[in-house]
């Protein structure tokens, strides 16, 4: 046992952190970075374009939610990446994003901006299953949480940068919003160039029967000791690339769990980030400089992800998720019960919600990539993302209407109720996958034999 704990038995799953893993993590984080940027830059832009394009509450909500609608559509392309490969779509989707970003500069009507931002959302939504599946299938088990977690941190970095860029561009003049919206093309171009030459997933190649190509990639990345048996899944445990697989007897609870907590986490979150400046004005916090205030809130979300990366590996996925949703609910309750202050209570509410959202935020992409096999991994990421974005669209579209009709307090109480729903879903459905190889977590191999030394001994299961 001592020899087994010190000497890697699987050169793929027990591989050391390498420059390749670092580069792939950075490149794969590009989609989440741009998602955070695109969804957040519009929050500052709306302060200018609302009077210029004569937006009422309906159009304001539609434009705020437009990228989320696109992400819902783009997420359905996860099936495409399972059928035709991760690498092919890895770059194509960003080309679409660059073109749509630039065209936003030239819009003159609300519907034009709405259509372009739906297209942007499609590109970003397609990248979720593409990039996270590729990253997961190269990630060693000890570093899987870290690598997927970095993509989530990239989302909040993108959001923070967007708020700062928006605030800095405001002095340009009344057309500054055009530069804000078109600016997402800059990181998009950089990421297309960086992603060139990224190898295809050997797990996907093997699943397609392209064993020789899979072995070549494995040995280029992990050395001559790597072989196909280190990633192979027994034929009787394989799933077909089909949407129906996500709802069969084996996977339906996992699909319900991921899409449920995902929705409960992002519905209030995206609404808060998209209309961050409006919310801060309603709370009378940093009025006139709410772009900076939103950047501070977004930075708190980044801060929350850092300890969550450690907790997910130390305490486990399940315990971290339950505790996180419990504290997030308390934070939302404070914002709902004390809409007029005092200021320290409002600050505490934002602080609790932001800092403890790290666990659910990381698990949004870690969970579907761990819980579903290679054949449907991209499909699972895409479908659960789509379902979650229905909630996010509803929250983002309804927020300005709810603020105008009911005020900030009751609106935040609804957010607390949604967050509490996420807590209940985790209590009854959250599995534990800490320390498992990717095959053991997703296909159900013998977890006792596959766990990394020092991790919990119980087998993966849904609920208690």
From TrEMBL:
- Which residues, if any, are the signal sequence? none
TM stretches of this protein: 24-46, 58-81, 88-107, 113-135, 147-170, 176-197, 256-280, 292-312, 344-367, 411-430
The record's listing under PROSITE patterns reads: MFS (PS50850), SUGAR_TRANSPORT_2 (PS00217)
Entry keyword annotation includes Plastid = no
Residue stretches making up the Major facilitator superfamily (MFS) profile domain: 24-434
On whether Transmembrane is a keyword of this UniProt record, the answer is yes
Write out the entry's keywords from A to Z: Membrane, Transmembrane, Transmembrane helix, Transport
The topology of this chain with respect to the membrane is: Multi-pass membrane protein
Q: What is this protein called?
A: MFS transporter
Q: Which organism is it from?
A: Alicyclobacillus sendaiensis PA2
